[in-house]
User: Fold this.
Amino acid sequence: MCEPISAAATATYIVGGITTAASVGMGIYSAQQQSAQAAASMEMQYQNAQAGIQMQNRSQAQQVAQQRAQMQMQQQQAQMQMQQSMQQNFQNQMMQQRQQADGLAQQQRLAYDQQRLNLQQTQSAQRLQVEQAAEGRNLQIQQLNNALKDKYTQQREAVKRERNMLMQQNQTDRRVYQDQRETATKQSIANAEAANRVYLGEQSQLSEKRKEAAFKAQTILAKSIGAKGSILATGRTGQSVGLLALDTERQAGRDVAATEAMLKADYDTALINMDNAFQQNLEGNRQAESKVGFNPEMPYLPQMPEVPNFVGFEIPT
Assistant:
């Protein structure tokens, strides 16, 4: 039969159990700081507690055997009576210890599960916080990129409008210049035609006057010959007849000289008129050219804006 467990052994067992529970509690507190190590530490403490209980049971069994041998030598009868009572007490104590050990193990398992649940909740909360922060930053980045895109679009449209205005203005200037150039060319042609008409008119008048002068010279010469023949036909002789004939020639020479002088005056007048027409042609051409503006060149077109560097999005980990 088994000997009853002494009070000292029972106290030692209880203290050992309390010490083990405290160690487990410290392991739980440490597991809150390091979740990965907590599980392993809890499992090891549980195994150590079970091993400690088994060692204490063996030690208590040895102590019971020693007490039983002593009690057998002193009082065999009292030992028989006490053995029944102590055996019942021992069974009760063993049952209580087993219940305490089971309760402690269950508390440790509950504490471990609670710790793991708390850790999961903390990690979920941290992950949610990180995701919300990343979403906020991504929203700001999206807004910034949209603002950059809108500004780029506005600048591009403004440059396109300015380029179109410059090209339209250049086309208008070119059309105006072309119209002015054509007008000046037409005016130059008209001036040249007017000068040519003056040239032709003066030359035609001068040609008529030359013909008239030549015809008049022939008439004078014919009259002079006729007058001289009339004088000679009278049959008169002497110096007076020669003087009369010579006077007739001199008169014819004066008439021819007068005719040539008039022709020379008409020629000079024609030259003056043609020169005036030439000067008027030049002045008209200068006035026409003065109304022609500058020949427009290709305008300087502003450069298109560069595409902005958009900000990348953040992917939470």
Remarks:
- Confidence is low (pLDDT under 50) at residues 1-18.
- The first helix runs from residue 7 to 33.
- The two ends are 66 Å apart (CA to CA).
